[in-house]
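Format notes (please read before filing issues)

Several people have asked whether sequences and structure tokens are stored in separate files. They are not. Every record keeps both together, in the order shown below: the sequence lines, then the token lines. Line labels are part of the format and must not be stripped during preprocessing.
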Amino acid sequence: MLARMTPLSLTPTFSLLLHRHRRLVHRSLIDLPFSYSSPHCFSPKPTSVLHFHFLYRPPHATTTRSSSPSFTPVAAAGGALLQDAGATAAVLAGAYCLVLAFETLTEREVIKQNLSRKLVHISSGLLFAISWPIFRELLRGPLYYVLILIFCSLVFWRESPVGVITLAMMCAGDGVADIMGRRFGSVKLPYNQQKSWVGSISMFIFGFLISIGMLYYYSALGYFQLDWMSAIQRVAFVALLSTVVESLPTTETVDDNISVPLTSMVAAYLSFGF
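Then the structure lines:
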């Protein structure tokens, strides 16, 4: 029997035995406090691995509390909101106390004004970095909101109606749409059950009216002159396009805090040409 067995026929048998041998060796090495890491030496088995989490804290608390029957996503969102609100209040109070302390030292001539300014520059940045762990998560919506405000101020300022219309649609239009939609938005849009007809109509009306009012305000101050018949038509187009974009389903990465102002900005720039 053995004489008729060739090396080729013995290959599956040796492979099975070798596989079992490797599994036994692997199990024995797992139980040892040392793991074989190189052909020449043994190294201690690592006890922990350092992970880097971008934008959010590691959800350790969520995984342990989710097994509780009283834990719900609504309760988690409420707790996160309260924690972030408290953290914001604490950071604002700390920043105010920091500036007040250096201002007091400067007035009493304990330190010079130039030194005080530099110390505020150093300590405020460190205070900002130290405060990150006390927040539950990065509030992307408010962050995007502030970034759009800064961008419109730097690029358009008050000599162009583009920035004025963009801010009016983002602040008044989108803001009123959310309020009216939550209060009276029982009839939902057929392509987005998170948005309502009342909210979309409110966004168009208030975004259009506030934009016209802001344009009239800046025009009265002499920053730019407009052909009002043409301007009304262009603003209506921007408001309509922004309303349609706001009504579309959003994702976790891109929401209407980005899509609405960018749409308004591009549409207003193309409509007014400056």
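For reference, the curators noted about this record: The chain has nine helices and four strands. The CA atoms of residues 94 and 100 lie 10 Å apart.
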